[in-house]
Amino acid sequence: MGAEGNGPLSSRHEAVALEVRDLRKAFGGVQAVAGCSFTVPRGQICGLIGPNGSGKTTTFNLLTGVVEPDSGAVIYGGEDIAGLKPFQIFARGITRTFQITRVFREMTVLENMLSVTGLAMPGRRARERAEELLALVNLTHLRAEYGGRLSYGQQKLLEFARALMTDPDLILLDEPAAGVNRTLLQHLLEHIHRLHEAGKTIVIVEHDMHVIMNHCQRIFVLDYGVKIAEGPPAAIQGDERVIDAYFGRRRTRVPR
Amino acid sequence: MGRTEHLRNVALVVAAAVILAVIPGSLTLYLRSFVLFTMMYVVLALSWNIISGFTGYTSFGHVAFYGIGAYACAILVTDYRWPWLATLLVAAAVAAVVAVVIGYPVLRLKGPYFAIAMLGTAEGTRVIATVWDGLTHGGLGISLPSAETSMPTYYAMLALMLVTIVVAYVVGHSRFGIRLNAIREDEVAAGALGIDATRYKLAAFVLSAVFPAVAGGIQAYKVLYIDPPGVFFVQITIAMALMSMLGGKGTVIGPIVGAVLLYAAQEATWVNFPTAHLIAYGLFIVLVARFLPRGLIGFAIDRGWARKGMVH
């Protein structure tokens, strides 16, 4: 463990939302995640970036139990949640969205919202909450429509709203901006900031650098399944290793 | 769904129950049997629909539970002199236990693999019933001692149908039902929303097994003779599936409508064209699959005559 282990345990828990330690996962001969470690500070918007195939989505899948890790630990709330089932991890306050949307296609928008478990509230209250969230993502008028009939961007928004039903503490968003038009995206980002203000921790996987650089406070860069860089956006933008990972290593230094 | 809509549906079921409770005295024996078997198929289709329509696990072996129920009733009445109605509780309990034991491994399979595993399960139960002479009387079947007047079985089937409709309706309009739908649509996403799919699927499977078992028990007492090929008949499973699909699986009204229409059609073609009725049946399957892939309810929804979804 790193240098941040100095303070008393309680304050460390305050400061850290999630700690990933030496996480590994291979699919056949492909080492998708190869000893990845990083620490997500509580209450921040973090970005997880890297070239295609660098292990971002697999990392999300490992954190949420969709895929079981070969080894390593995921510390959340003082407990190692690596290897737990998705529904157990969800019950501990972590929700996610998917890179390719997974709305329930032959269920109405409202039913999509109400399918979430762990709502410690009566049916009427759950319905009100669903309506509030649908209003936030401008889907109220489509509440009785099948999820599969929505546009791709609307499906992304529905998935986002659905993930917020239980008021989770840690929200993992896998490419929330992909396929969402500018107006809707602006709306989505505003909402992400509102969650941030409410003290939530958010991790975003995203290829849209505009979103990452302008909205994240801390960025983790993955390449070949390991973290190669970490820092605030400004530092990441100029980081040699990051540029190498995205564009390949330069033979000679080219002036900008 | 609004309160008035629920009240209207309750009123419809009560009205149907009253009519069905009053008529048998004035029906011929044939017609009384016809209504009884129609009600039985409503039970079977609605039960199949809980695991296969709501939850998306298409079972091609549900007749196993029907057969188990029939045998539980016949053995207890014949060999142990049990009162008939009490055997129905045992039929339900045995089916529930078998559903847990079989469901736990088999519900890990998806799509066609689950369907085939269930087909195998039904064949397995049929073979066990055939070879386990000491318990089941083997291939000779069991003749039940009885002074059946056809009235008790009629009312038992009516009661069972009402219970099944109420359970299917409550499940269909509850959060439990929505989560079964979520498992049907996308099990990975369901897990990510906190749904323990294994537990939910098993609960749905047990529910879908219990009512066919009781129906099997009532049927055994109605016809007074059962044998393995008769009560583990694959066509009964096919009928459950077809009826649900014709009406619209994943809904409550769909399997009811499908069962009534298809059983009536089957009876009419059987009576009028004894040799051609299987051809008509096959043709019907093709036409439903081609033109009504989501059943009559799906057809109505697409035209805006019915609302989408179960919860409004």
What does this structure look like?
The complex is a heterodimer of chains A (256) and B (312). Chain A has 256 residues and is an alpha/beta fold. Chain A contains ten helices and ten strands. Chain A has a single domain (3-244), classed as Rossmann fold (3-Layer(aba) Sandwich), CATH 3.40.50. Helices cover 35% and strands 24% of the residues of chain A. In chain A, the strands form two sheets. Chain A has a six-stranded mixed sheet, with helices on both faces. A four-stranded antiparallel sheet of chain A has the order 2-1-4-5. Chain A is globular, with a radius of gyration of 19 Å. Chain B has 312 residues and is an all-alpha fold. Chain B has a two-stranded antiparallel sheet. The A-B interface holds A 64-66, 85-87, 90-91, 95-96, 98, 102-108, 110-111, 114-118, 123, 126, 144-146, 162-163, 166 and B 175, 178-179, 181-182, 184-186, 188-197, 250, 307-312.
Record the SSE blueprint.
The complex is a heterodimer of chains A (256) and B (312).
Chain A: H1 9-15, E1 16-27, E2 30-41, E3 45-49, H2 56-63, E4 71-76, E5 79-80, H3 86-91, E6 94-96, H4 109-114, H5 123-136, H6 152-163, E7 170-174, H7 182-197, E8 201-205, H8 209-215, E9 218-223, E10 226-231, H9 233-237, H10 240-247
Parallel strand pairs in A: 3-8, 3-9, 6-7, 7-8
Antiparallel strand pairs in A: 1-2, 1-4, 4-5, 9-10
Chain B: H1 3-22, H2 29-54, H3 63-79, H4 84-106, H5 111-131, H6 133-136, E1 142-143, H7 151-172, H8 175-185, H9 187-192, H10 197-223, E2 225-226, H11 228-231, H12 234-247, H13 253-272, H14 277-291, H15 295-302
Antiparallel strand pairs in B: 1-2
Helix pairs in contact in B: 1-7, 2-7, 2-10, 2-12, 2-13, 3-4, 3-5, 3-10, 4-10, 7-10, 8-10, 12-13, 12-15, 13-14
